[in-house]
Amino acid sequence: MKIILSVGLKRMALPVTPKEFGYKTANKIDVVEVIGIGETSIPGNKKLKSTSINQFFPKQKYPFAYYENGFVEPMEYVDLLEQWENDGAVVLVEADGFKKIQMHISNFDYKVQDGSGDVYYSLSFLEAVASQLTKVGEITKPIDSVRIEKTVEVVEYVVKSGDTLSRIAKKLTGDSGNWKKIASENSINDPRLLQVGTKLVIT
To answer: What CATH number does the domain located at 155-202 have?
Structure first.
């Protein structure tokens, strides 16, 4: 079995194929609790396919190795894979007996573990699927997606001496910038007039 990895015009034929190769896939199932009914499952979309390859890049010409365009030094393979990983490149994975799949490199580790100079590696891939996403800060939201509302935790907090809305927001939500949301939810027009003993409702 031959495995070919390519990005644009750059092509890499793995010199030593793994003992086994395949893809892993699964469905995403959400479990929600419905009042009066109990737990129920909601089938979602399929999870991204994934695969991994554990093998080595030979330092010398072995009779069982495959060289598409002549012998290549191990670190040349390593350098190219690291470049693709760092660039977030979409890698076309071609394996005999399987459909071609576009994937991202999700993890790449390598080491020299004996005196042969061979470079042993572990290479993991995750399916690359084009999608329409809009990224706001650290939150990525799908465009025109259907949202499933989940239970919102409500916290009551009594203002203490020395408290400010930003300190309260940092303490209870982890982000001091949420003070505006707290002010809005509690109809506080001027945060500077926050009084000790005031009960705040924070979601």
So the answer is: 3.10.350.10
